[in-house]
Design brief:
Elements lengths: L6 H5 L8 E10 L8 E9 L4 E5 H13 L13 E4 L5 E8 L1 E8 L5 E9 L2 E10 L2 E8 L17 E7 L4 E11 L6 H5 E2 L2 E2 L1 E2 L2 H13 L3 H8 L4 E3 L2 E3 L2 H6 L1 H10 L16
Helix pairs in contact: 4-7
């Protein structure tokens, strides 16, 4: 069978002298087994100076911006999984977009248990490993034929590239589906290190959760001032012209806030009060 990542055989001896190697994962995520999966394409960019993980759509829109010589925000993360770290490091910058743009610095060292179980995947022999992280138990399938100790999101530290990763409840499933080698060190500054010029505000995870929980408690606050000043706004293509109209949407706004992200680290997710 033709190997999925054929370029690694060509660049195995000089990988870290190359520019950016991009590995593209399909992510399937759901809150629980009663829900359908959300499917998202994710990029893992590895260069000599950094490792970055983010929604593929960011790069697609960024290419359009660069071709048109513009800086227009087209996209917000759908996953809450925008990560940057130095190579061979567990110290992550976790970029988080919720009205404002934030960065949470975290130390995410993982202890892996290697198992003897193996499987074939697109011409590669994969070995199984397990770890506990973020309030979940995870199974990873890696190949030591690929001497890259990285993987999706914050997962890394195995003796090879992670091809498949899933929690034991199968609420998060990552599969490596393709890769490409970029001739340049891909510039993500407009959508990752900043959000289209908006710098990331340093914050702790606890304070970030408090920020979201406060918005959830009073979701109309950000829009009400504009309406008081005579501005009009829309919600799901419906015009809102008064505070009374806005208050009628409170429950729908709260539901949108609660369900915007499926939190991968469930031991760090916000705690929303029941209505």
């Amino acid at each position: 069978m033709k190997k999925l990542i054929f370029l690694l055989a060509l660049y195995a001896g000089s990988f870290y002298q190359s520019q950016t190697n991009r590995f593209i994962y399909e992510l399937q995520s759901r809150k629980n087994s009663s829900e359908d999966y959300r499917k998202t394409s994710m990029n893992l960019d590895i260069s000599p100076k950094s490792v970055k993980f983010y929604d593929t759509k960011f790069a697609e829109y960024d290419s359009v911006n660069k071709a048109r010589n513009q800086e227009i925000s087209h996209y917000s993360t759908k996953t809450d999984q925008v990560i940057e770290r130095a190579p061979n490091s567990f110290q992550n910058n976790w970029y988080r977009d919720f009205f404002e743009y934030f960065v949470v610095k975290s130390n995410d060292e993982m202890k892996w248990k290697l198992l003897q179980e193996t499987q074939e995947y697109n011409g590669y022999k994969l070995q199984k490993a397990t770890t506990d992280f973020g309030g979940r138990t995870w199974d990873a399938w890696f190949s030591n034929e690929v001497n890259i100790k990285e993987g999706p999101y914050k997962f890394r530290g195995l003796p090879g590239l992670i091809f498949i990763l899933e929690d034991t409840d199968k609420n998060f499933i990552y599969k490596l589906v393709s890769n490409k080698k970029l001739d340049t060190n891909y510039d993500t500054h407009q959508f990752l290190e900043t959000h289209y010029g908006k710098p990331a505000i340093p914050i702790s995870n606890q304070k970030f959760n408090t920020y979201i929980e406060d918005i959830y408690e009073n979701p109309t606050r950000m829009l009400s001032e504009g309406i008081k000043n005579g501005q009009k706004t829309t919600f799901k293509n419906e015009s809102i012209e008064s505070i009374e109209d806005l208050n009628k949407k409170r429950g729908m706004l709260q539901n949108g806030i609660k369900n915007r992200y499926i939190y991968i680290e469930k031991d760090k997710e916000p705690q929303f009060k029941s209505n």
